[in-house]
Automatic annotation (TrEMBL):
Residues 1-23 are annotated as: Disordered. It comes from Nocardioides aquiterrae. Keywords: ATP-binding, Nucleotide-binding. Signal peptide: none annotated. The lineage of its organism: Bacteria, Bacillati, Actinomycetota, Actinomycetes, Propionibacteriales. InterPro entries: AAA_16 (IPR041664), P-loop_NTPase (IPR027417). This is ATP-binding protein.
């Protein structure tokens, strides 16, 4: 069939043509936006799940809902060993810009811009030193002087509270709110994660119309709880998982139907068996199957013909790129995890079992395990165990 008309989109964070299986989350967030804008108490939100389940797509969809309600929004992607002060300043600047042009009091807007500038300029010595080694320091592009004595103490939690309070009040004047969307939230250093939680806690107690929506790997809720004991009650936690059969079928069938194409039932059976309903795989296999099919009724033979090509593309881009980032010691560690996981579907395995499999002492494997966690290849499902962050990764390693 015509590849130009192919509706499937297996891209990183790229919204598929049919966002199947996320209706409940989208409906709940509409309620959250309405409640917050009307001064009702509501919690911020955290999305967690494996890679490839559509967390970033859902995060962007939630931001789109806020934009359609005329909220001020900003988004950041956290990175390991990088302070969040400047990224948050940039996100807040984007949110302020979205509401400022509708505000009737330019002096009030300038006052908030001055607080934002003071917050951005108060970078730690380590951040300034990193900037001098080739990084980038950022100052809000506004022609107002930085405020003194507001959001510039150097204490991140206190500064965030003051910044969030002023920005939320600006949006409240317009009957809307501010939403900050944080991807890869698990990569925020623990002290700064605690500061962000503390600021969210204070803002929620004030009833200010500002929410934070974070997305990250499955251990993100544990990291949040470790940063602040009340984080379990501070956020509404949403586990983003693979699609049930009905929703996976919808993701394949609806975009195809708009192009006059249908699937025979056996083809859908085979597609679900191959993908397990993981959204990235749903799009990847759907795209290759479309390109292989000759007729407007996609058959199980088309799926089976497309499967090796889809697997080859995943082996290079989705799996291989991650495997190549690992050191030899880290690859040995992952291979042991894959061997141990063969019997129980690549569920979490005990670190002690990995050590026994490699005939090593557990302590000697700590650097490899910690390196894999830092690179986002594995996560600690619970104390004393590890699991892959990428679905089907164990299967890929065993095939190698």
């Amino acid at each position: 069939m015509d590849p130009i008309r192919n509706p499937y989109a297996p891209g990183a964070g790229q919204r598929p043509p049919e966002l199947a299986g996320r209706d409940r989350e989208l409906e709940q967030f509409e309620v959250t936006l309405e409640r917050v804008a009307n001064g009702r108490p509501e919690r911020s939100m955290v999305l967690s799940g494996l890679r490839g389940v559509g967390k970033t797509v859902l995060l962007n969809a939630l931001r789109g809902q806020a934009v359609r309600r005329a909220w001020g929004t900003g988004k950041i992607e956290a990175r390991p060993d990088q302070s969040i002060r400047i990224p948050i300043a940039q996100a807040v600047h984007a949110a302020v810009r979205e509401v400022a042009h509708r505000h009737r009091d330019p002096d009030r807007v300038d006052a908030v811009a001055g607080v934002l500038k003071s917050f951005a300029l108060k970078t730690a010595f380590e951040d300034r030193r990193a900037a001098s080694r080739g990084g980038t320091r950022w100052t809000p592009p506004v022609d107002v002087p930085a405020s003194r004595g507001r959001a510039d103490s150097g204490d991140l939690e206190l500064d965030l509270v003051e910044l969030f309070t002023d920005v939320a009040a600006l949006a409240q004047d317009l009957g809307v709110g501010v939403g900050l969307f944080v991807d890869e939230m698990q990569d925020i250093p623990l002290p700064e994660l605690a500061a962000l939680c503390g600021a969210c806690h204070e803002i929620s107690q004030q009833g200010a119309p500002l929410i934070v929506v974070g997305a990250g790997l499955p251990h993100l809720p544990v990291a949040l709880a470790a940063s602040k004991s009340y984080a379990e009650r501070l956020f509404r936690y949403v586990s983003v998982d693979r699609l049930p059969r009905e929703m996976a079928d919808r993701a394949w069938r609806r975009p195809a139907a708009e192009e006059g194409v249908a699937f025979e039932p056996a083809a859908l059976d085979e597609l679900y068996r191959l993908t397990d309903g993981y959204p990235y795989f749903v799009q990847a296999y759907g795209k290759v199957t479309w390109d292989v099919a000759l007729e407007s009724l996609i058959t199980v033979a088309d799926v089976r013909m497309a499967a090796p090509e889809a697997e080859a593309e995943l082996a290079v881009g989705f799996f291989g790129a991650r495997f190549d980032r690992a050191t030899p010691a880290e690859r040995d560690y992952m291979s042991a995890m894959a061997d141990l996981g063969a019997e129980h579907g690549d569920a979490a395995v005990a670190t002690a079992d990995v050590a026994r499999h490699l005939s090593r002492k557990p302590q000697s494997l700590s650097p490899a395990r910690d390196g894999l966690i830092k690179k986002g290849l594995v996560y600690s499902a619970e104390r004393g165990s590890v699991a892959f962050t990428v679905p089907h990764f164990g299967k890929f390693l065993r095939a190698r």
